[in-house]
Structures are given as structure tokens and as C-alpha cells.
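We both want to read C-alpha cells more fluently, so let's practise on a single case. Would you write everything just below, so we can both look at the same thing?
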Amino acid sequence: MRPLAKLRFALLAPLALAALVSTPTFAQTEIIIRQAPPPERVEVIPVERPGYAWDRGHWRWEGRGYAWEPGHWQPVMRNARWEPGHWEAHGPNWYWREGHWIR
């Protein structure tokens, strides 16, 4: 192997490994807006469904305003509880926190 090729390989190998290690397994978009969400709607929770947890409805930001996202059944993850998504106020800004399983 030529010296220049060895040097190129020596520089590129660590970069390639760093890219693989730092790649996230999922991307979560953070939504930050200044307009507070409307009050939550009252939703009738359907009869319990074995193996599923109810994920209540919420207001979703659509660029120019809020749209209601109805609740749905979420497959249960063993030994975990479902934390529903919610809006949090921090000063004048509102942040959407995606629902997730807590172990």
C-alpha cells in the first residue's frame, strides 16, 4: 500500500467509526412556539383493550395553528408505563414533549 493511501485510510477510518457511533437511532423534532395550545378536549376513553394503553388526544401544531389529534391505542411495552405527550410552557414559549414509555 502506498504511503498516501495509508494516510488517507488512517484519517478516514476514525471518521467513519465516529459517524456510526454518533448516529441517533431515532430523530425527534422539537416544536417550540409562542402561542399557547387551546384547552384539552374531553375525550371518551374506550373500553380497556388487553395489551394496549390509551394515548389520549392532544393539540398538534400545524405551522399556522393547532389541530386536534384524536387519542389512539398504543401497544403496551412490558414493565413500562406510558407517559403521554404534552405541551410545556417555558417563559413565553411552548414546547411539545413527545409521548414515550418509562421503565
Notes: The chain has a mean pLDDT of 83. The CA atoms of residues 27 and 98 lie 11 Å apart.
